[in-house]
Amino acid sequence: MATAGRAQVEKALRWIEENWVGQKECAICGNSGWFMGEVVGEMRQMSSRPKWLPNTGQSYPMIVLSCENCGYTLLFNAIVLGVMEG
């Protein structure tokens, strides 16, 4: 996982604020507080290879936004948010 710089985090937060239409309450607990770490995670393409072999499939860089109360998590594509280049 890569660490996002402060400028990248702020860019992602701005994108989310500008594009998140409607209520911002957590779907699980109703809390409206969210946090985003400074790590860009990844979601890997599933592989038909045995689990003990390394997965060499394509990965998607993700920004993780989590509820401050219950931890419910939303994933955003870091390329779409402009945090990373595709």
Overview of the molecule:
This protein is an alpha+beta fold and 86 residues long. The protein has one domain. It has one helix and four strands; from the N terminus they run βαβββ. It has one helix at 6-19; strands at 2-3, 34-44, 59-67, 73-77. A four-stranded antiparallel sheet has the order 1-2-3-4, covered by helices on one side. The longest helix is centred in the N-terminal third of the chain and has 14 residues, at 6-19. It is globular. The model has no long low-confidence stretch (mean pLDDT 85).
List keywords for this structure.
alpha+beta, globular, 16% helix, 1 helix, single chain, 86 residues, 4-stranded antiparallel beta sheet
Topology (SSEs and partners):
Elements: E1 2-3, H1 6-19, E2 34-44, E3 59-67, E4 73-77
Antiparallel strand pairs: 1-2, 2-3, 3-4
Order of helices and strands: EHEEE
Mean pLDDT: 85
- Straight-line distance between termini: 16 Å
Structural class, by secondary structure, is alpha+beta
Shape type: globular
Work out the number of β strands: 4
What's a quick, concise take on this entry?
The protein has one domain.
